[in-house]
Amino acid sequence: MLKNYGAHLEEELLRGDICIGTIDTWLTWKFTAGEAFVTDHTNAGVTGLFSVDTLNWSERICGILNIPLVVLPTIVASSQVVGHASELENLPIAALVGDQQASLVGQGCITPGSTKITFGTGGMLDMHTGTTAPTVSSRSTSGTFPIVAFSLNDTDAQGTTTTTVHWGVEAIMLSAGTNIEWLIEDMGLIDSAEESAALANSVAGSDGVMYVPALFGLGTPHWDYGARGTLLGITRGTTRAHVVRAVLEGVAHRGADLFAAAAHDAAQFASPSNSPIRIDGGMSKNPVFVQALANSTAHTIEVSPVTEATTLGAAFLAGTALGLWPSLSVATSTWNPENRVENALDEATTAATRSQWTQAVSASQGWIPDLSALDF
Questions:
Q1: pTM of the full predicted structure?
Q2: What architecture (CATH level 2) is domain 99-376?
C-alpha cells in the first residue's frame, strides 16, 4: 500500500524519516521535542497492526500492507517513564494509555471479572480478563472485542525488567447520552439532562412503553447498523414522563446487553457474576437511570466519584511509575464509589422485562437493509 505513494516517499519511509503512530505517539513526540517515539500496548493493540503473540508489531500484517517496521513507534508499558516534557518544566511523562482502558483503571477494575461502563454520548463497557492473552484479535460471535487493558513493568532484584500485559474485552453501545440530547434538542420533551431524572421519577414506571436506543444502529451484541430507534407500547394514556422514563430504561437495557455479552466472552478467564458494575460518564449522575441499570443487569452498580474516570486512571498509572504508590493495586485501592445502587426487582420480574426487551430489539432491527448488511 505505502509503495503506491512513489519512490521518494518509499526511500524516506525506509530511512525512518517518516514516523507513523497514534495520537499518544504524536503528543509524546511533541512534548519531548522529538526525543521519545513511543506508544503503549493499549493504543498499539487497536491499530490492527499488533500481534497478541509477540506483544509487538506484527511483521506478517505490516508485511502484507508494505509498512516498514522502522516507521512505527516503540511499544512500551502503560505505566512507565518514557521521557520528559521539555516545554512543561521538564515534567516526566509516566503513563500512556487508551481512553476507555484508563477509565477501567480509574475505577479500580484491575482484577479478572471487574467491569466498568462509561455512559457518555455512546456507551463503552470494558471487562478485565487477566493476564492470559486471547487466542484471536477479531470480534467474537457475542459482539465484543479483545483489548489490552493495561501493561505494567516489573523489575526483579537483579534489575531485570519484564512487562506484564493485562487483557480485557470491550462491548460498545453506539448511542447512550445522545438519546437524552434527542429528548432535549429535537423532541423538546425536557429542557435539560437533569430534568430527565425528575420527570421520569414522577411516574412509577414507563406504563409498558419501551424504547430501543438505536439512533445510529445497534452495537454489541447485534452489530446491526440498519437498526433504528424504536418506541413501542404507546397508548392514549402515555405521557412525556413515560417516554422519558422509557428512554432511560432503554439505555439501561442496552447496558445489560453489553454486560451479558462481555460476561459470556470472559467466562473462560474470569467470573464476573458476583462483581459490582462500576460506571462513569454523564448519565452516571442520573439516579433513575442508575436504578434501571441495576434492575436490568440484576447487579449492584457502583457510581464513580468523578464523572470522567479516564484522567484518574492515567494518574494512577503515572503515580505508580513514579513511586507515589508501590503498586497499581495500592493506587486503585483509594477508589471509593460515590453511591452503590442495588437491584430492586425479583428474578421473575427481571426475566419477564428482559424477555419483552428482546422482542423490542427485534422490532428495531433491519429497518435499513443495506446498512444491516454491513459487517466489519
A1: 0.92
A2: 2-Layer Sandwich (3.30)
